Amino acid sequence: MRSVGISVGLALAVSACATPGPVVRQNALPAPPKPSYGTIGLERVMGQNANALTQLFGQPLLDLTEGAGRKLQFGSNICVLDAYLYAPQQGGVPVVSHVDARQRTGAPIDRASCVAALTRRDGGR
How far apart are CA 5 and CA 10, in angstroms? Predict the structure, then answer.
């Protein structure tokens, strides 16, 4: 009789393992989404030279040249935008190849939103 009880218990344990269903993990957290670094909304900035940026945003807060690159920084009470300009591989005038943006507090902000805020501050030059 004892072997029947063990067999039934073993059968129940095996059947429980074979039962399909969701796996629930108590401590598992989903991975955070990877940040998107697309250029949608940055069309007014990407590929532009320093003169075009100055016409769009006004005088930069910072104009720094280091090696082959140049960084122009523009700001408002909403955000700070850093535009990085490099000469194209075939040569010519340096143009924006990357931008970073942040709120005045240092907190992240969408780059396209910062561009929009900077262009609106002076009537969208």
Answer: 8
Has residue 2 been placed in a domain? Answer: no
End-to-end CA distance of the chain: 91
Q: Are 49 and 93 in contact (CB under 8 A)?
A: yes
List the structure tokens of 10.
């073993």
| Partners of 83 in beta bridges | 72, 99
pTM: 0.66
Q: pLDDT digit string (tens) for 106-116?
A: 999 999 999 99
Range of the domain at 73: 42-125
Distance between CA atoms of 69 and 61, rounded to whole angstroms?
17
What is the DSSP pairing of strand 95-103 with strand 62-66? unpaired
Q: What confidence tens digit (pLDDT) does each residue in 18-44 have? A: 545 454 444 444 544 544 556 678 999
Domain count of the fold of the chain = 1
